[in-house]
Write a structure and sequence with these properties.
six-stranded mixed beta sheet; 43% strand; alpha+beta
Length: 461
């Protein structure tokens, strides 16, 4: 297949393209949903295809095909070149930052290949998780999801890069619901790992499902969260939500160029307190957002976005790096062969500090401790956010007191960063899928416990 991709790249150059990129993918996947002891769906699948991008006199063209024959690739190339020629007359000149030419072959270690594991074994694991959650109490209901993915990817570019990648991962999700006297509370947990089916032994699927149900049940006894401005301590999961949604998206260079980022024009400026250091790192072994290379063939890297409150960089691809005269960061990622690569985060998190959790809360007379992300809304352009938490507790005179429910926090991104007054030395990171421009991309986000002053708190909408 690599020879075929190299051939179509050469064909594109012969047709006058300034740059050609061909990306082949073949992937096996399984999606399973179990709801209250019943298998709702179990869908195995296999796909393969090629994405072709061509740059012609400053205009991009993109095409994708499932026909990986010479005729199919030639047809897709012609479409990409046609689009590129049309775009070259209508758009500003696009040039690409130079990238190191790479010839490499890499893979995620796998002991039990996902494509060779019977679907019955996968269903069995999910049914056991569902049973564990519902065994906590008769009122508990549960929805569990399993998704696995095993891919072979080849990237060839007209610069001379040729990369072969084998990747494999498993993702679990559990929603537990508890009800009493008309009140319904829920708790969600998600966990994922790179590797083959053997990683399910490390995931503690049953234990995590049981704990999710217990937490949903406990929320029935919790009091509604108060409203107002509070000193709030957030855990690593909620800190990760802040890192990803409120700051990470604003640091993506394509958003900066389009003028929809609150971080535009702030490189080298202090945007947060000295406690704020934010990292995007695609090189962490085994993390759900990690990669060897991005989908332009640029090596994965560790990037410091904010250091001690100062904005140090943006996340780039080859196009934005050239336009903004910035380093290549290896953040061009595509969901699969049906999509072109765009600027995306990988593993994004706050750097731990040197405080203990007890030190963070010891001088708080009346505040709130919030745990676990429950989604929310963010506008990177306007610099505002609102997030929900799965659990919360009142802090009184430095001690945790009664549990709260329906907690949400909101504020201005830059003001919130400046109001960070403490960062713990612990660390927690969790997996998720991020949507952007119609593409879902695996990633993680997290951090340590973080203390923030003057956060607006209110019940969930």
């Amino acid at each position: 297949m690599k020879e075929l991709l190299s051939w179509i790249v050469d064909e594109g150059r012969a047709e006058g393209a300034d740059y050609v990129e061909a990306r082949y993918q073949k992937f096996f996947s399984t999606e399973i949903e179990v709801r209250d002891g019943k298998v709702i769906s179990a869908t195995p699948g296999i796909e393969r295809g090629v994405a072709i991008r061509a740059l012609f006199k400053g205009g991009w063209g993109f095409s994708t095909t499932n026909d990986v024959s010479k005729e199919g690739l030639r047809s897709a190339l012609k479409m990409a070149l046609k689009m590129a020629r049309q775009a070259s007359a209508d758009t500003e000149l696009i040039t690409l930052a130079p990238a190191t030419v790479v010839v490499d072959k890499v893979e995620v270690p796998v002991k039990e290949p996902l494509e060779e594991t019977p679907i019955d074994e996968k269903i069995k694991v999910l049914l056991e998780a569902d049973k564990s959650a519902r065994s906590v109490a008769p009122s508990v209901k549960a929805t569990s999801n399993y998704w696995d993915y095993s891919e072979e990817k080849i990237i060839c570019t007209s610069d001379g890069t040729e990369i072969e990648i084998k990747n494999s991962w498993i993702f679990f999700g559990i929603w537990a619901y508890a009800s009493e006297a008309g009140l319904i509370q829920s708790y969600r947990d998600r966990f994922a790992m790179l590797g083959g089916f053997e990683v399910t032994e490390k995931m503690d699927v049953q234990g995590r499902s049981e704990r999710a149900a217990e937490k949903a049940l406990n929320l029935l006894k919790a009091k509604p969260a108060p409203g107002g401005k509070f000193t709030v301590v957030i855990d690593g999961v909620l800190a990760g939500l802040l890192a990803h949604e409120a700051i990470g998206h604003a640091s993506e260079a394509d958003s900066v160029l389009r003028g929809i980022s609150v971080l535009r024009g702030k490189l080298g400026k202090k945007i947060g307190s000295k406690y704020v250091t934010l990292i995007d790192d695609a090189t962490i072994t085994g993390r759900f957002g990690s990669d060897f290379y991005d989908d332009e063939g640029v090596r994965a890297q560790r990037k410091v976005l904010i250091q001690n409150g100062v904005l140090k960089g943006y996340l780039t691809n080859r196009e934005t790096a050239e336009k903004m005269n910035l380093p290549l960061t290896g953040n061009a990622r595509a969901q699969d062969y049906r999509h072109p690569p765009i600027v995306r985060m990988t593993n994004t998190f706050f750097q731990p500090g040197d405080m203990t959790f007890e030190e963070l809360i010891e001088d708080i007379k009346y505040g709130i401790y919030a745990k676990g992300g429950r989604g929310g809304q963010v506008s990177p352009a306007e610099g505002v956010f609102q997030f929900g938490a799965q659990e919360a507790y009142l802090i009184k005179n430095g001690e945790l007191k009664e549990q709260l429910r329906d907690f949400s926090m909101s504020g201005f991104i830059l003001e919130t960063l400046k109001n960070v007054t403490g960062v713990a030395k612990d660390f927690e990171i969790y997996p998720s899928f991020c949507g952007k421009a119609g593409q879902l991309m695996r990633n993680t986000c997290g951090g340590p416990h973080v203390r923030i002053e003057n956060i607006i708190v209110g019940g969930r909408a």
